[in-house]
Amino acid sequence: MLNRTEAVTMIIYLQHLPNEWAKGVLSNKDSLTEERVDEVVQQFLSNFKEGKLQENQWPPHFAAYIVSKAALNAYTWLAAQKYTNLCINSVCPGFARTDLTFNYGVLSEVEAAEAPVKVALLPHGGPSGSFFLRREALSL
Ligand SMILES: NC(=O)c1ccc[n+]([C@@H]2O[C@H](COP(=O)([O-])OP(=O)(O)OC[C@H]3O[C@@H](n4cnc5c(N)ncnc54)[C@H](OP(=O)(O)O)[C@@H]3O)[C@@H](O)[C@H]2O)c1
């Protein structure tokens, strides 16, 4: 069972992947393609079905969630490179009390909605291909 701090950390730092191969694929911008993102997801699914998540260094907790978010961030970056006339970003709203967290979190739904709404309303020419940790833009 995770303690509160660990739970917050796992949810906020979605990019944390112990599997070095997957981390390398998703973070290498020179060779990243949609097919490579899919390869990581398929490998995860394959290891999951075989019951081999632990021996292949996938996250010990919230594995599917973390892998899906890491893949989403990689895809966000790819989409931003492809559609340069749009602002395409991903955003973590923070640890919020919603159905997903069984109403356990530090932010209300309204407080958590602030960052996604702000990112959705970015002006033309604003950042694209970024990951927003609430209001803070981080490079993908
Ligand atoms: N809450 C947190 O602390 C937290 C932290 C970091 C990131 N996030 C991310 O923020 C996002 C929203 O999270 P949340 O906490 O608001 O989750 P939530 O309370 O479970 O709400 C998820 C929403 O997504 C809708 N949905 C689910 N599957 C869908 C589908 N296939 N097509 C269309 N809509 C679908 C649900 O609709 P129905 O109600 O109709 O099923 C629901 O309105 C998620 O991506 C989550 O990973 C949340």
Protein architecture, described:
- The structure is a single chain.
- The protein is mostly helical and 140 residues long.
- The protein has a single domain (4-139), classed as Rossmann fold, CATH 3.40.50.
- It contains five helices and three strands.
- The protein has helices at residues 4-12, 20-27, 34-49, 63-82, 109-120, and strands spanning 90-92, 130-133, 136-139.
- Strands 1-2-3 form a three-stranded mixed β-sheet, with helices on both faces.
- Helix 3 runs antiparallel to helix 4.
- The longest helix has 20 residues, at 63-82.
- The protein is flat.
In terms of structural class, how would the helical and strand content be classed? mainly alpha
Helix percent band: 40-55%
Bound ligands, named by name, code or SMILES: NADP nicotinamide-adenine-dinucleotide phosphate
Quaternary status: single chain
CATH superfamily: NAD(P)-binding Rossmann-like Domain
Protein traits:
three-stranded mixed beta sheet, 46% helix, single chain, Rossmann fold, mainly alpha, flat, 5 helices, binds NADP nicotinamide-adenine-dinucleotide phosphate, disordered N terminus, 140 residues
